[in-house]
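Q: Structure tokens for this one, please.
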Amino acid sequence: MTAMRCFSRGILMWSAAMMMPAVADFVPPAEGPVPFRRDKLPVDVDTMTALSRQISVLAAAEEAEKPDELRSVAQMAALSLALDPANRQARDLIAAAEKGDMPDSPDSKEIERARTRAWQTLSWLEMPEAGADANALAACLGDVLAVADPGHPKSKERVSELGAWKDWVATKEAFRTPKEAFRTPKEAVKPADPEPTDTTPPEPEDGGQKAVLGLALADLEAAMPVWVHDAETGVESLQALKVTFHGEISGKGRTQLMIPGEGLTQRMAKPFQALEKAMEARHGTLPAGLTVSLGFGKSSYSLSRNGTALSGTAALLLEGALTGEMPTAITLAQVGEGGKLELPPKFWKTLRALSEMPGGGRLILPDQAAEFLPALLTMNDAAFFMKREVVLASTVDELCNLAAAAPQGPAGDAMKRFGEIRKVGDGKPLGTFVAHQATQQRLKEVTDLMPKHASARMLALQGSGNRARSLARPVLAREIRRSLEPIAVLMTLKQEEPTAEAQLDKAHAASREVLDSLTSYIDIRDRDLHKAAMDVTDSVRTLSRLLSKSENENNTMAPKKNLAAKAAREAYLKAIRELTAAAGDEVDYPLPRGAGGGN
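A: Here is the predicted structure, written as tokens:
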């Protein structure tokens, strides 16, 4: 095997009389203008250097025989040097190309590794929040990756170049060799070596779907809000859990799901089957013998606390693996029959806890969440809709579309406009800002483009002054039930414990604090729910006072304490039953036996 590959397989045999100098096929790139500044890119030097090397590997793998192939090599070399001017491999590539030769192609594993990592970097660079310079780099990088990896799903979406190559890399016409102009009718041409027969199956007709033959990304991760129980403190809290995805393809059999944890794989089977069908409908088919392994690092996923909410995040991860686009949103949704999105267990409680967590970004909720969102305005939490861009989706297909870094169509336009609203409103008093006529008009433009843009709709409602003053009964029931969670200690408390009185006093104070804060949000017709909860706290207070008293000589205190404990437990269980019935979520909220549940 020779060390160099010739650009052209055909060799023209010229007569001495007609011999003329040949015009070079390759036009080296200019030093600029480069459409982005390295110091403005949101990546470190090591990442830029690594990306430069990856593009050089892809350039060396090109056939580089036809004018468009030659230009692609020039584009890749130009981009490599723009990212790392010290990239010797890129400069050697240009020098070799000018001589009409190319080095041997890198091995297939090196090429595949370069493609995968470059696509991963592109997913971040093309996000709007990455900045203008990163987006300009992404446009150029997407152009060269579409050539280097034409089978990638994102390559097929690219119908034309998006990068600013003008005056940096010559047009395709400049790479043509006008040999036809120098030929005479008598000149002989040595036939080119025969090309191998193309056995690639034909592309499907317009309107058909092409099967996904592999994974664009085999490994990726996404954040998911998860309820975690601390065994030492007994406290349940919402935490951002990193969910990892690893995909393998055997080429045979159906898709399989693997989740660490006792019984998780079996319990998640039904929603994952619904997800599988939804993704098959979206992509035509899934790779044969695909095995999906989800992990949680050193943490664990509690099915009793989170249900099958993992299926929503699994949808985003699987979509990212198939398309090469990293998930740019989080979701509070689980996948139901027919690929429809449903509210996960403890939805209201999770939503409230998520509001208190730091961070922002896009949050995708099921359509059913719409009835709960106005309650956040009632409870003076309109800032949640400015901190997080909340949008609604009804199906897995819609979820995946909205989670893209730059959604297409009206939704993408709406999100760009909302981003501008957030920029203008940053640092300004929220109430005044959203009530301003200009802001109201801009919010209306967003909801006109995207009716399911919940953040814009809720902020517009806040600014109009027409928000509800009281909580809807199902939401109020959930909020009151949440206030009684500290009282759950009553179900396992032993009266003889030295700390029993202190535990009850602490639970009473915590519950009353929340219950007292709800009084201004209660409609007169729903006061029965609040009274039932107040009765529970009163019974706990009574029990605590009795426990503080010492036994008398007639031993009458013990029976009184036992009766008070029984009355307090019965009042608690009765209130939980009534509140759960009013909330309408009996399936997701079983009657507590020990520690409290959630809502």
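A few notes: Residues 1-24, 178-212, 594-599 have pLDDT under 50 and may be disordered. The CA atoms of residues 193 and 388 lie 60 Å apart.
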